[in-house]
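ok trying again, last paste got cut off:
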Amino acid sequence: MPDLVTAQRAIPPEVLRVVKQVEIKARILADQALLGTYRSVFRGSGLDFEEVREYEPGDDIRSIDWNVTARMRTPYIKKYREERELNIFLAVDVSASSWFGSGTVSKRELAADVAALLAVTALHNNDRVGLLLFADGVREFIPPRGGRPHLYSLIRRLLFAEPRRSGTELASATEFIGHITKKRNVVFVISDFLDFEFEAPLRMLAHKHDVVALILNDRRELELPAVGVVGLEDAETGRMTYVDTARADVRESYAHAARERRAQRLRTFSRMGLDRLDLFTDRPYVPALLALFNARSKRN
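nice, full thing came through this time. structure:
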């Protein structure tokens, strides 16, 4: 694996500057908010037997080793150590709709910031992080690794993946993850989930892995401002539609359709019982992530 200096030299200076800015921001946010809860939220994939020791009052009787107890004629229990190392997969939607942003931050930039924060937090805990970029198919895959050079590589690809006019098709991404690993992993799926055929692929993925859906939103997808005639382009098809936003009925019709899409999406997630989190381009994402982590921690 290349060292940090080699990895930095391989990145153009102007790109490295942006990558470092995202990394520094992620490290600061991780230190301030997520590191304390991450370990209790995402557990290792199993337990490794460590030793047997004599039973002490308060020990769980279910852990008694009856074979050793019979030989020693005094109760002994099995002691296990958590297999801590995890593979964290970041499955990030890079379809055309992810490039939309009505303010200073696009959904794509939000996805990169959130993914970088999760990667920094996981690597700090000695977990390995992999990246899968998908749109109408798998665009790129970086296997799980650790180390700062690997982090730089992940952030660079998140920020500078080639934009393409394509839709979102989640099935190929979930099938790909299912084929490359048999071990139970944690998979963050970061997408706007505009592909309404995501229920079956996510169910299949969640059957084998711990899946968390992070849903990217922009407020202009939910409502239109009253600014007169505007052209609305479908990022994934290129089709243009012109609407008069000065008309209240037009704005209400747009908002109603957006509410219906959002409600349908939430009903789908509720049926699956997956952990999900709505993220918005104009709102802080750290408090939302922390609330999700704390809720999961209380369940564990």
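cool. The domain at 4-41+84-299 is CATH 3.40.50.410 (Rossmann fold). The first strand starts at residue 46 and ends at 54.
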